[in-house]
Amino acid sequence: MAKGIIIREAHFPGKAPIEAYGNGGFRFADMSHRGSLLVLPSGIHGWEPADPLALKAADFDKLFAEAGNVEILLVGMGKDLRPLPAPLRVALNEAGISADPMSTGAAVRTYNVLLAEDRAVAAALIAVD
């Protein structure tokens, strides 16, 4: 039996503020992650939507599984603010989640404030360089 590298899905079990962002990734809980993040009440997950410019409901399956624990979703859209696609906004509304798109930097700052206030917040953060 050959030994090799086991690649696991990136996941941090728990809540943590985002300490830094940029250079294509994020720092949190004394760790770093290259790529985008989906930050949920159950933990922080590596997240790579197929097309960050065309987000769809399927990109948020883990969020919808925890919909009862999330009131606010902050969506860091990269360097610039972009609106959420209408079908995604409808799916989030039907799940009782208020979505607020903004730049990734603004989403990180807002997430940290709401987390410190113990609010029911989640964040989908597209990595920026």
UniProtKB/TrEMBL annotation:
Domain of life: Bacteria
Gene3D superfamilies registered for this protein in UniProt: MTH938-like
Pfam families assigned: DUF498
Name of this protein: Mth938-like domain-containing protein
Organism this protein belongs to: Mesorhizobium argentiipisi
CDD domains: Mth938-like (cd00248)
InterPro entries cross-referenced by the UniProt entry: MTH938-like_sf, NDUFAF3/AAMDC
